[in-house]
Every structure is written in C-alpha cells, then in structure tokens.
Amino acid sequence: MAQPEGPPEVTITPVQNEGDLAQALAIREVVFIEEQHVPEAEERDAEDARAFHVLAMHGGHAIGTGRVVDLPDPPAGESGRWARVGRMAVLQASRKLGVGSKILHALETEAQRREVKGVVLHAQLTALDFYKQHGYQPVGAVFEEAGMPHLVMQKKL
C-alpha cells in the first residue's frame, strides 16, 4: 500500500505576469490593508511597477509575497549599489511555517544576482527578531510608517 504524501512544499516563484502580480497585491491587501489598517494609498506605490516580486506557493495557492527594488542611492555611510526589500506579507493561516524566511532568502538571492552590496528594509517593530535572525542590523531611531512603529534595518551581502 502506498504511503500518503506529506503536505505540499512551499515554493517561491518570481512574479511573471499581471495575474501573478494581482495575486501578490491581493495578499498585501489582506495583510496590510485589512489586518493592519494601512491606507491603500500608502500600501500601493510606484515601485510596484519596477520591483522584482515573488510569490510563495503552497498546494497551488499563493500564500505570501515580497519585493525587492534597487535603491537610487546607498544608505548613509555606505557606498555602491544597494537594494530595498519590502512589502513582505504571509497570509495568517500560513504564518510560523517558515514562509517568510523563504521569501526573504529569495529576495536576497535576487539582490545578489543584481550585484548589490547590501539590502535595507523598513521593519515593523513586531518583526525585529525575525530580521535579526536573518542577519539584519537596526540603523537609526524608531519612526512611524503607515501608522506603525518601524526601524530601518540593513544587511551587507
């Protein structure tokens, strides 16, 4: 008798078309606009058009997303090309399963492919430990973004 298969693996795939991008934006709408009450005008921005986006897929369904964009200038005190990771979101039912780590790894891999020296991000204070576990260091003081406290964090690649 055949053994039952385990749960489907979470895979990370680049957004390749408008349908994929629509799925990414739908996840962000649920997480940021509905759950965290971020105004839609702040959640959507011009960087979506030029960003490299990924989807976390599980069992044929999109459960998470994130993006990376090239920064026009390096962070203060740094030189060379840098990128910014952002808009990382995982649907509530899929949190605590390592999905965020897989998304972050995929975005860092894309940043490395672009030959940037490092990555910067704006971390919600509730996510500081997550980013610290992935090698990010806080820079500067707490600031408010979309009505929530954040810290700039960065990591050299």
Report on this model:
The chain is of the alpha+beta class and 157 residues long. The chain has a domain of 106 residues: Aminopeptidase. The protein has five helices and seven strands, in the order E-H-H-H-E-E-E-H-E-H-E-E. A seven-stranded mixed beta sheet has the order 1-2-3-4-5-7-6, sandwiched between helices. A hairpin with a 2-residue loop joins strand 6 and strand 7. The longest helix is centred in the N-terminal third of the chain and has 18 residues. The chain is globular and about 45 Å long. The relative contact order is 0.16. The mean pLDDT is 93.
Care to give the gist of this entry?
The protein is of the alpha+beta class and 157 residues long. 30% of the residues lie in helices and 35% in strands. The chain has a domain at 11-116: Gcn5-related N-acetyltransferase (GNAT) (Aminopeptidase), CATH 3.40.630.30.
Structural class: alpha+beta
Oligomer: single chain
Number of helices: 5
CATH class of the domain at 11-116: Alpha Beta
- Cα separation of the termini: 48 Å
Using brief descriptors, characterize the structure shown:
7-stranded mixed beta sheet; Aminopeptidase; 157 residues; alpha+beta; 5 helices; 30% helix
Chain-wise SSE layout:
Elements: E1 11-14, H1 18-35, H2 40-43, H3 47-50, E2 52-58, E3 61-70, E4 82-90, H4 99-113, E5 118-124, H5 128-133, E6 137-145, E7 148-156
Parallel strand pairs: 4-5
Antiparallel strand pairs: 1-2, 2-3, 3-4, 5-7, 6-7
